[in-house]
Predict the structure.
Amino acid sequence: MESTQLGQIPAKATTGAGQGAVDEVDLTPVRTYWQLARQRFMQHSLAVVGLIVMAILVTLALVVPTITGSLYAKTSLSLANHPPSLLNPFAPLGYDSIGMNVFIRLVKALQTSLFVGFSAVSIIVVVGITVGAIAGYVGGAVDNLLMRLVDVVLSLPSFFLIVMMVALFGTGNAIVVIVAIGIVGWTTAARLVRAEFLSLRETDFVQAARALGAGDRRIIVRHMLPAAMAPVVVAATLGIADSVVVEATLSFLSFGISPPEASLGNMLTNAQEFFYRQPILILYPGLTLILVVLAASFMGDGLRDALDPRQRVRK
Amino acid sequence: MATYVLRRLIQAVPILLGIAVISFMIIYLAPGEPIDRFRSGRVSPQTIENLRRLYGLDQPLPQQLLSWMVAFFQVWRVDAWGYSFTDGQPVITKIAARVPYTLELMGTSLFLTVIIAIPVGVLGAVRQYSWADKIIMVLATIGYAMPTFWLGLVLKFVFAIKLDLFPLFGRHTYGDDSIGDLVWHLVLPVMTLTIVSVAGWSRYMRSSMLEVLHQDYVRTARAKGLPGSRVLFKHALRNALIPIVTLLGLTIPSLLVGAAVTEAVFAWPGLGGMGVTAVIERDYPAVLAFVMVGGAMVILGNLLADVLYAFVDPRIKY
């Protein structure tokens, strides 16, 4: 296996005694950082499993609701409490207490969860990178001010604040949920980017870019950001899991997505109401949540090992 | 040390101010006015105007913010944090009344978490890659991925409905104030919280212990012939516990603020549930106080963790 060092010297002349040839060249093909990262990721079997599971979940969430349209909200009392049956390909998980197709609803809920999860993480990443990059690049008073803001946000009782924002700005609105999670969650990404920027600012390649007359924007966007992305990508992947769980919790407490829209959280609220009739209904949304969380965190672990070998945790 | 603590406490004031600014901004930007809940056909505009004056809503926002900051620190005055919109009780009294319930739930859970997770984590680290370790890691990973409220539902279904061993929710059977009844009601919510946090803590403990076991001084201790248990407990464990202090500091706020979700699932009358109810009811005095208390707890928890650090790790000096 290749060493996991970042800075490999691909074409090193060997000066071994007896070889004679002065310019015998190591013919190992030159590989970029990203090729090495992909190789390391692929060697992390759990991460690959996570990636495959996530790909399947995303495909399901994109395809099934498109085909079934608004069926996820259709009730038909004649079908109520129909038990799960693998023989019925249209409703393998049966029908719930008001005759909604559980499988179709579950996939629609998965779509909502993934949509909220990915969107919230996008906000976290964009805000986090912007704040972190400005703080780390400009430094001084600006840095100080922004980092105090980070301290304040970190000290907030985060879940309660999300509940408060969702309750005051519109219960049942997915956009509000996404923005609320984003507003509370950007601090980690900002700290990571700032830390990277503080050290990148002094590196030779950034100094060289500056000496060549590159403007601040060009230095930040073209030179420093790509080099600072690794920890952010890892944090973002792990953030998907957190956001999905927060959304489910909000919807479970009936702050988030409310019926007839489907969410893994409000399906559980519903299942809880019909605890005695069909207890199995609490199983599906919970297991789906666990699957999403596990897939995202395995991918995150794999990405950490692949992108950022310095941060590797001993397993 | 005393000057360090004092300095940190002084630094906490601007952070609390920031928290107040953020909560004020959210309430200010939200549609409607805090006193909207009092409006109805029978309430005259004059009364609304009086209410606005009573709550200081006619003053400029910075002025309101300042008077709230001053009031927040006057905890000795029962009416300092205002009166709840829902039942007219002083907010301080309401919060203080919930603290014991929250403490008995969160305290029991934290205690169990510590005495279960530390041995489990140590076992996993000492017997790394053994069957026991693999089982521990699989269980911990699943436990970590499980949403708390879902675990609560499942436990409720299994132990309260199917097996009928424990009550579905609440803190007491009506009219029964015995300790036995309380413990009986505590079992399921404590189990829920403990399973989730043991999963996190034992993973943390395991990796911390592994880190220490690979250190030179552990090898030295082994090499000079010390018995295995002495190396483990005297040299390794004590150092592996240092990072756990951080975790403890992160847990302190939840000790008082409670676990809103678990409390909701089991209808436990703790602070977390009170906060959520306050938001639903638009009980603004309670909401503001809740955010500030939560923030203060986070700050105090971090401070406590840093102070504890100096005790468990003599290399750290303030």
The mean pLDDT of chain B is 86. The two ends of chain B are 6 Å apart (CA to CA). Chain B touches chain A through 48 residues (CB under 8 Å).
